[in-house]
Amino acid sequence: MKPRWDxxxxxxxxxxxxxxxxxxxxxxxxLPDALxxxxxxxxxxxxxxxxxxxxxxxxxxxxxxxYTVNPPFFPxxxxxxxxxxxxxxxxxxxxxxxxxxxxGIVVEEGFPLGDLERIVDSMLRVFRDNNVSxxxxxxxxxxxxxxxxxxxxxxxxxxxxxxxxxxxELRPGDVIIVTGPIAEHGAAILAARLGIESPELRSDxxxxxxxxxxxxxxxxxxxxxxxxxxxxxxAMTLNEWASSTSLNIVIDEAEIPVREAVRKxxxxxxxxxxxxxxxGVAVLAVDPSKADEVLEQIHSLGxxxxxxxxxxxxxxxxxxxxxxxxxxxxxxxxxxxxxxxxPRIC
Amino acid sequence: MKPRWDxxxxxxxxxxxxxxxxxxxxxxxxLPDALxxxxxxxxxxxxxxxxxxxxxxxxxxxxxxxYTVNPPFFPxxxxxxxxxxxxxxxxxxxxxxxxxxxxGIVVEEGFPLGDLERIVDSMLRVFRDNNVSxxxxxxxxxxxxxxxxxxxxxxxxxxxxxxxxxxxELRPGDVIIVTGPIAEHGAAILAARLGIESPELRSDxxxxxxxxxxxxxxxxxxxxxxxxxxxxxxAMTLNEWASSTSLNIVIDEAEIPVREAVRKxxxxxxxxxxxxxxxGVAVLAVDPSKADEVLEQIHSLGxxxxxxxxxxxxxxxxxxxxxxxxxxxxxxxxxxxxxxxxPRIC
Lengths: 346, 346
Hints:
With 346 residues, the first copy, chain A, is α+β, with helices and mostly antiparallel strands. The first copy, chain A, has helices spanning 17-26, 79-92, 113-129, 184-193, 209-219, 233-245, 260-269, 291-300; strands at 51-55, 58-67, 73-74, 77-78, 97-108, 133-142, 150-160, 175-178, 223-227, 248-252, 283-286, 307-313, 322-325, 331-334. In chain A, a hairpin with a 2-residue loop joins strand 3 (73-74) and strand 4 (77-78). Chains A and B meet through helix 1, strand 1, strand 2, strand 5 and helix 3 of A and helix 1, strand 1, strand 2, strand 5 and helix 3 of B.
């Protein structure tokens, strides 16, 4: 299918509908099925948080992301912290323990060494604190004016001796749990970009190792799907789950944790918090028979604002959609976000 | 050690002495030894072409690079072809068979879709032709003016059931073989940047799978070191080998294959071909008892210009240096290149 655009637009990088379209058009559709994954593994065939390669004794899980966030320093973090945390989280969301990382730094000529040290120190601190070895990388410089400050790419590799969590295994009846208030990263970046300072608008950038490793040890089999709702936010994550399984997901607006400051700020800008990125939150689809226990463990691990926000349902007339019961008592279709959303959010 | 610069310069990205310095200062020196590699593996402790992670039945080998080459289309290739070939070659140089790849594309708003398709098609063709699955990636867009066209990051993962080739295992007496004429990529990019058109100045960008896989099958144990001399060229590769082992390497200028057009062009610009990047050449250090057989196999695989260019020697007064017998019959110290060399060469 020839696309309806002849140039790349900011919407293609927004993480919503257009990003999915261009990735499908440029990459997925051009590869034979056998080359979308390695034998017994998972790759572009499932388009999950990360890919998995079958080895003799389990699976190597690997994720790569290029971080372009602007500004590189923001309340609650910086591009180094975000790059390390984001790639660690992608590996965790596949049910694997992160063990090693590689980085690729591309920086503008003239970038202050002190700022670069702060960024690298942030990144290394996250890797060190999570016992992830840094085993390789690349360092490039582009002439002044040919890149806006810095881009950091991170590749994180993990291992699991169980089957990875592949989100297409979502099942009817699964309970949807969100582990903390959403939209914090997106709101913080929007605020920083507009020069608004507020102690309440801070990125939630955070590796979720302390949450996911104990949870996987206790309840791996009960967790049918897991994702960190970054670009495109909760709306994109749930829509991808629904459309890839043709199941419906029904959520309750009143149950979705959004901090008051974030809600007000998003309202002021006319942005839906469901489309704003989180960088320290997991969305889980859990077997209903274990949902109470899982939620209790999440709370006991310090994620006290975790909530059940909905359920997976067999589709009725509409298939593969996300439906929200609004506070006012009505029903609203939650569409996959499209358009620019927030450029250079991560 | 506090460095003597307070801003990043183009020299830090040149792949020579300053790149080694900033990587040491920013990354290697800030990590405890245990976090420079995974147990039983190789990482920032050896700073080889790629890193290796020990698994139950062998080693996973992984390399990541961020390609910034300017212009993105050049005689002999494009940034997509280069990114796929370069990362495949890094994995091959560790003695592993490449099996899977992930890519990260960061592109400027307004970039023509047709150009992006050409780049992605080039990249995918290299992966397909080498039977490398493309299992994941990332796609980002930066606003107009905040990135010069495109940056492509590639991560390639390979596997070997033998010990990886770690270049620190270079031994006195080893024979140094170069598999083809050097400096072709560097000369082509320099020419393209200056608007010089010549059918004889073409990048050698090429995956070396067809060379390295048969060679590894026959002579793995005889190959003590292997590297593709990209940024910093042959001068940097040999100096890294010499300085990391404290051995000397003695090479013969008359034996180093450089095409006449490349030699003349480099001379005209006052650039030493030894410092110019190759993207389709391997430098091998081979056990002297097998060197003739190895060279013969290399020739039989179609690399007819492969040559023995020198030997590894026990150091005399000077340690860890590269010495060249010049055509004129003298001796010259080949220093690790420094300065800008060619910005955005790869």
